[in-house]
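From the shared-data thread, chain only:
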Amino acid sequence: CGPTGVGKTEIFRCISKMTGIPITMEDSTEYTASGFKGKDVTDILYNLYLNADRDIEKAQRGIVLIDEIDKKISTRSEVEVYTKAVIDSLLKMAEGHIYHIEAKDSKIDIDTSFITFAMSGAFSGIDKLNENKRSMGFMSEEQKIEQEKTTSNYTEKALLKYGVMPEFLGRNKLVVMNSLKEEEFCRIIQESDKSYL
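Structure, as tokens:
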């Protein structure tokens, strides 16, 4: 979890590049429940297989990053059925199963037992749901900044209020990436190989 622009996707791109482990980065909004218009979650595995240069052994030890997972979480009952089905399918896939994939030129079996699954999202508006952020009395600017550093918006309680299923939280390790400071943006612009300068 973390606000937009903190490098949630980039960190996995770097891990893949430095280790040579194949990765597929997928946008969760493209996937739908089986029987509805949109991509099926098994397409993720096929994309990983292609990114592993069609090497099944490499693919079975790859990384799957599902970005924008917060867009598949809803508290509105009319859409919850469709979004929950996608989350359930992803959780089942991450548990480790053998999937039969119909490729264009062949049929392949992919075992997901050793694939690393990561889900990322900004969870916009979560700060309004976090009880830890509420304070009483007057605070100086320094105290406010210090409180923001020590108290994360992305607590399990706040994520549950946001609509995240308890079983989803139970099967995923929560890692919070904090907003970047002005000095960090300056360093990225001046020192990074990704800098537009």
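Residues 130 and 155 are 7 Å apart (CA to CA).
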